[in-house]
Amino acid sequence: RARSTLSIAIRTYGEGLRLVLSQDVTQRERADAMRRDFVANVSHEIRSPLTVVAGFIETMGSLPLTEVERKRVLMLMGQQTQRMQTLVADLLTLAQLEGSPRPPSDRWVPLSKLLAQSQADATALSAGRHVLTFPSDCPVQVAGNEPELLSALTNIVNNAVRYTPEGGRITVTWRSRDDGSGEVAVTDTGIGVEREHIPRLTERFYRVDGSRSRDTGGTGLGLSIVKHVIQRHGGELEVTSEIGKGSRFALLLPAARVRVPAPRTQAGER
Ligand code: ADP
């Protein structure tokens, strides 16, 4: 596709209108291709668990199963159904993010609240298999939409847990920069990502290792949600990683959306 764009551009060079039109067509073609890819991906992601569930239903209907077998089949069917539910929830989140107005810049959310909720989530997910460290006292407030900010933070912290083998460390830090902007960073000692994959991680359904992602409950949409959320808040997602050593995913927040309220003085204090 890139080659045909170039040849059109050269042939129509000097004819501004035709040049613009040809670019429009190329953009539309690209958007159409992306939509087709997206629909194909969603269909594939739903078809796999659905096929498993359909197979189990047939088995249950045609074979006499012991009580133990019946329980096991039901458990496996439950897992696949859960997978579809998570996928649909993530798809709805993405659709809502695309269609809703930018988050408010005057609604202040305590970062400590977001950190505490994400810590509870990650602790349950890790189930004691990792060492998790969160900032102990964080007086910062962030302006925006609380559920969105929480989902961005939870996604990167939970990914750190999911892509870090047992015994690894996950460390969450807060830092305010000289220009007033802020940074929440999640560092792990996990499997890491090769350099060439990093720019594509926020694409929908892009996974480095599909089976590991699915086995740990991933939909391939998490980082795409994170990128949307952080961009809507005027910030950026920064990723650095080294294969086999670990990764660092940082949410960068602009100065206008970060503040540290003055500590309340006790009565009698000056
Ligand atoms: P998934 O549901 O597959 O985890 P995400 O969009 O959250 O989807 O992440 C996309 C891909 O990025 C993952 O499949 C994984 O390959 C990679 N990834 C994300 N976080 C990490 C991490 N902390 N360490 C290593 N790889 C990661």
TrEMBL record:
What domain of life is recorded for the organism? Bacteria
E.C. number(s) listed in UniProt? 2.7.13.3
> What are the UniProt keywords, alphabetically?
ATP-binding, Cell membrane, Kinase, Membrane, Nucleotide-binding, Phosphate transport, Phosphoprotein, Transferase, Transmembrane, Transmembrane helix, Transport, Two-component regulatory system
Cellular location(s): Cell inner membrane
Question: Which BP terms in the Gene Ontology apply to this protein?
Answer: cellular response to phosphate starvation; phosphate ion transport
Q: How does it sit in the membrane?
A: Multi-pass membrane protein
**Which molecular-function annotations from GO does this UniProt entry contain?**
ATP binding; phosphoprotein phosphatase activity; phosphorelay sensor kinase activity
Reaction it catalyzes: ATP + protein L-histidine = ADP + protein N-phospho-L-histidine
Q: Name one GO cellular component term.
A: plasma membrane
Main role?
Member of the two-component regulatory system PhoR/PhoB involved in the phosphate regulon genes expression. PhoR may function as a membrane-associated protein kinase that phosphorylates PhoB in response to environmental signals.
Query: What protein is this chain from?
Result: Phosphate regulon sensor protein PhoR
Specify first residue, last residue and whole-protein length for the fragment.
176 to 445 of 448
